[in-house]
UniProtKB/TrEMBL annotation:
Coiled coil: none annotated. It is a multi-pass membrane protein. It comes from the Eukaryota. This is G-protein coupled receptors family 3 profile domain-containing protein. Residues 878-970 form the G-protein coupled receptors family 3 profile domain. Its main location: membrane. It is found in: Membrane.
């Protein structure tokens, strides 16, 4: 009912239109031509052959009923051919299923048209092509580009869908260097099967309020995931991009030899290029036009995090002479799990300017900088202002960078930056290579950690004069991993008005976990590591809460200059400035107007000099410095030196020393007085006890001993000791804390005598010193009468340096032996001892005739100590006689026992108690055995048997008699 009513209305409106209901009617009308041809498509029309508009027509109108009027080609190889004979075309309210070809038509207007097919065009002189409310889908016939348009194209409020039929692009526009393309309020989808746009030679391209999504390039030789722009000018505003991917370069844009490009208000989601430039890849072959691609107010969310990625540039890649200007850019979740993940990649002669950028979460896994990387550089220029980077992570196992990685000739300027929460496997914050110049202004870095120890700022070059790093208002905080703050190789660096604090705090708790991938000296430098030919300057910089082995390492004649700066509350085991020529650690230090407060170390909190060779390049010049409240747990509260050649190397002018402390040498500890630095006003410091101390230079006895007289074999007296003294006659300590002392800290000595042929020492000749003394052990001196020298000599010097006079001597006189003494060798040697014999324990009633030798001849006792009785010899004849007699009585007793048993019933036997008689006779036999045992040699068993038989025999005999007597009594 409604449809019929609508048809009536349209019919009344189209009274002047030619109404067609089939292909033949349509063909008849277009074959006539005319000034104005108005065709109304009244139904679904199936067309079997191409429709060619060959007759001249000034104005062609094709109209229909939406969703009802359809021109459908049965054979998709057939098409609508609009030739140059048609001057103006208006098509609306119909659906076209099939291909369309425009050939040099001046004016084309399509409104509310659904197209399923390919569109081709060729124009020499086109005024416009206006597409409004178009819904486009390709057909199944493959084509390089499904839509190929030239001319001045305007697209409004339309939808375009791609498919696999579009082998390269959904839409190809060729402006022929004279036509414009305008797209607004539209929608393009590659349906995850093709890319959206290819734009070339466009005089002017404007895209506004349009959405592009599901654009996908499968072919490896195609660039530009959403669009490719060549030799054209483009202005794109307020567009959105969703779920786009490119196997090559340019996830959204691939700009090649652009004539100009401006993008503003773009929102990009889930869009990635597998090689370079996930937002844009820009390549300019020629440096004459110097055109700049401009990006304003861009949001990019969720890039990467897909397999197959091979390179970085997760935002932008510039090559050749490309230039880009970015302002107000926000990015989030830039993820590259397996390869490089840098946001910006630059090569060749490219140029990049950025203002106001914020990136949250970048993840990479390659050799690059997560923010900006330059490579194959010829002349790259970078300028960045107002940048914020948060949550940066670099997972690559080899050296890489979190912020910038510059290779070759790159000039860069960074102003007003904030970088927080950085961590990685093996990262610098900045890596700057050959002939690069980097200028940092107002940068704050907080919370940095690398699992492998690396310098925070690493500038490596081969040409010092072309390389520089300049930083003003550099603020570093919470740098947790080990490695120098700055490492230079053939480079210059100047850092001004900066604050560096809370560096390597893990060192204090001995819980640093950074692996080491280099020399020990490189990663024990906590602030600066310089090698090659370098100059490093700090002006008005504050160093606070920095911990580690040393502050700076200058390798092979580098230069460090510090002006108007301060060091506060730091700990360096070997001081801030360490010089050790044996490890090539030398250089020139110029320190002016700098304060050192609350610096702690083991030896020399500020200067730690281990070795300076003659003609060394080392030179330290410190002026107007203040050293206050600095502490060394061992030596030299401010300066520690064990080198003999520093007097012409170290100079301190107009410096103030306030309340510095050390166990030895509150201010200065040196090898000796001849090896001290030049310090203006030194005489005032010398007035304070323990202010200047040197390494021990001599040993002295604690009391004067002219000579020790003794007999050969006597021990030296107890209580003899010596002490260590320095060149200022300060007593030095050996060691006082057993809990912290190491084996190498012990001071070992030995005793020796000068004439080892005529004398020797017996006893403990090796020992160690402790606290403030070396105590002589009570050794014995054995030798021929005469005068000798007993020497105590240090063999190890503990934590001191070796010194020449490391011994003391005592005169020893061995006296002639008294005649009342024994004079002989006590150990079998040729040297004799003079002594009174001593026997311990004593000889009892015997006489002590030598040491532990007793004479028992005047006593009835024997033995070594005259405490044993003489053993009596047995008379064997008596033993034999006793055995014979005992044997006789034993036989008689046995016979008597037999007779008693035989005559037991006789009254005489019964009256004598038969059982008691037997017991008495058994007791007699046991006593006979006892007597025989007494004639034998004693053994333990025999002694037991003697005791046993004697007592049992006695008990049987006299016990039986006692019982028998009691029976008679009763």
């Amino acid at each position: 009912m409604f449809l019929n009513f609508l048809l009536i209305i349209i019919f009344l409106i189209k009274l002047n239109s030619e109404i067609v209901n089939n292909a033949d009617e349509f063909q008849n009308i277009i074959s006539k031509g005319g000034d104005e041809v108005d065709i109304f498509v009244n139904s679904y029309i199936e067309i079997k052959e191409s429709l060619n508009f060959n007759k001249p027509v000034k104005k062609l109108l094709i109209d229909g009923i939406p969703y009802y009027s359809v021109l459908s080609f049965f054979d998709f190889s057939k098409q609508l051919n609009f030739t140059s004979n048609v001057n103006e075309i208006h098509i609306k309210n119909i659906s076209i299923v099939g291909n369309i070809y425009f050939n040099d038509t001046k004016k084309i207007f399509m409104d509310n048209v659904s197209i399923n097919g390919n569109i081709y065009s060729h124009f020499n002189n086109n005024e416009y092509i206006k597409l409004v409310n178009i819904v486009y889908r390709p057909i199944s016939i493959s084509s390089k580009n499904c839509i190929n348009l030239e001319g001045n194209v305007e697209i409004d409020n339309s939808q375009f869908y791609g498919s696999l039929s579009c082998q390269q692009r959904l839409f190809d526009f060729n402006g022929c260097n004279k036509y414009k393309l305008i797209i607004k309020n539209s929608y393009f989808s590659g349906e995850n099967q093709c890319s959206c746009l290819n734009i070339s030679n466009g005089k002017e391209v404007k895209i506004k309020n349009t959405t592009f999504e599901n654009s996908h390039i499968f072919r490896e030789n195609l660039d530009g995931g959403v669009m490719k722009l060549s030799n054209s000018y483009m202005n794109i505003i307020n567009c959105k991009f969703f779920n786009n991917i490119c196997l090559n370069n340019g996830g959204i844009f691939y700009l090649h030899n652009m004539l100009g490009f401006e993008a503003e208000g773009l929102e990009i989601f889930n869009s990635t290029a597998l090689i370079n430039g996930s937002m844009a890849y820009i390549r300019t072959e020629n440096n004459k036009n110097k055109l700049i691609a401009k990006f304003r107010n861009i949001r990019q969310i969720n890039t990467g995090n897909i397999p197959g990625m091979t390179s970085g540039g997760l935002i932008l890649h510039l090559s050749n002479f490309a230039s880009a200007d970015i302002e107000n850019y926000y990015a989030e979740n830039l993820i590259s799990n397996n390869v490089s993940g840098g946001a910006f990649y630059l090569a060749d002669n490219s140029k990049l300017t950025i203002k106001n950028i914020e990136i949250n979460k970048i993840l990479g896994n390659g050799i690059d900088g997560l923010f900006i990387t330059s490579y194959n550089a010829i002349d790259i220029n970078i300028s960045v202002t107002n940048y914020t980077l948060n949550d940066l992570k670099q997972n690559y196992s080899r050296q890489s960078a979190a912020f910038i990685w510059f290779d070759l000739k790159t000039t860069a300027s960074f102003k007003h930056g904030n970088i927080t929460n950085v961590n990685g496997e093996n990262i610098n914050l900045m890596y700057i290579s050959d002939s690069c110049k980097v200028d940092i202004e107002d940068l704050y870095v907080d919370n940095f950690f690398s699992k492998t120890a690396r310098a925070l700022i690493n500038s490596h070059s081969n040409e010092k004069e072309y390389s520089s790093f300049i930083a003003n208002k550099l603020n570093l905080n919470n740098i947790k991993s080990q490695g120098a703050i700055i490492e230079l190789l053939w480079s210059n660096a100047v850092i001004t008005n900066s604050n560096i604090k809370n560096i390597h705090s893990c060192y204090l708790g001995n819980n640093c976990t950074s692996r080491r991938d280099g020399t020990l000296d490189e990663y024990e430098a906590e602030i600066g590591y310089l090698h090659g030919n370098c100059d490093l300057t700090f002006n008005n910089t504050k160093f606070e809460n920095i911990y580690g082995v040393r502050g700076f390492s200058l390798i092979n004649n580098q230069k460090l200059e510090i002006n108007d700066s301060s060091f506060y509350n730091c700990y360096f085991k070997n001081g801030i400035f360490e010089i050790n020529n044996e490890k090539s650690m030398d250089g020139k230090y110029v320190i002016n107007n700098t304060n050192f407060t609350n610096i702690n170390s083991e030896n020399g909190s500020i200067l730690h000099i281990k070795s300076i060779v003659k003609n060394s390049y080392s030179n330290v010049n410190i002026r107007n410095a203040i050293f206050q409240n600095n502490t060394a747990s061992k030596f030299g509260g401010v300066l520690y030196s064990v080198s003999p050649n520093i007097e012409h190397v170290i100079f301190l002018f107009s410096c103030k020393f306030k309340n510095n402390h050390a166990l030895i040498g509150n201010n200065v500890y040196c090898l000796n007085r001849d090896s001290e630095p030049y310090i203006s006003g030194k005489e005032n410091l010398l007035r304070v006890y323990n202010s200047f101390v040197t390494n021990p230079t001599k040993l002295k006895l604690t009391r004067n001993i002219d000579e020790i007289s003794l007999f050969s074999g006597e021990s030296i007296p107890e209580g003899i000791s010596c002490q260590l003294y320095d060149d200022y006659d300060n007593i030095q300590l050996f060691g006082t804390n057993l809990q912290n002392i190491q084996s190498e800290d012990f001071f070992l000595f030995n005793l020796e005598i000068n004439d080892t042929y005529n004398a020797k020492l017996v006893g403990q000749i090796n020992s160690f010193c402790w606290n403030s003394t070396c105590d002589f052990p009570p050794v014995k001196v054995i030798g021929n009468p005469g005068k000798y020298k007993l020497k105590l000599k240090l063999n190890s010097f503990g934590y001191y340096s070796p010194f020449k006079y490391n011994y003391v001597e005592i005169n020893i006189k061995i006296k002639e032996c008294n005649s009342s003494f024994i004079y002989q060798s006590t150990d079998g040697g040729r040297l004799k001892s003079c002594y009174l014999p001593v026997c311990k324990p004593s000889c009892n009633m015997g006489e002590c005739v030598n040491n532990d030798v007793c004479d028992c001849s005047k006593t009835k006792l024997v033995g070594r100590r005259c405490n044993e009785y003489v053993k009596i010899t047995r008379i064997k004849l008596i033993d034999y006689l006793i055995r014979i007699v005992v044997g006789f009585f034993s036989i008689a007793t046995l016979c008597a026992m037999g007779l008693i048993i035989y005559y037991r019933n006789y009254p005489e036997i019964k009256g004598g108690s038969y059982d008691f008689l037997i017991l008495i006779l058994v007791g007699l036999i046991l006593n006979y055995v006892y007597i025989v045992l007494l004639t034998l040699e004693r053994t333990k068993i025999k002694c037991v048997l003697i005791y046993l038989f004697n007592n049992i025999g006695f008990s049987l005999i006299f016990g039986s008699i006692l019982v028998k007597t009691l029976r008679i009594y009763k």
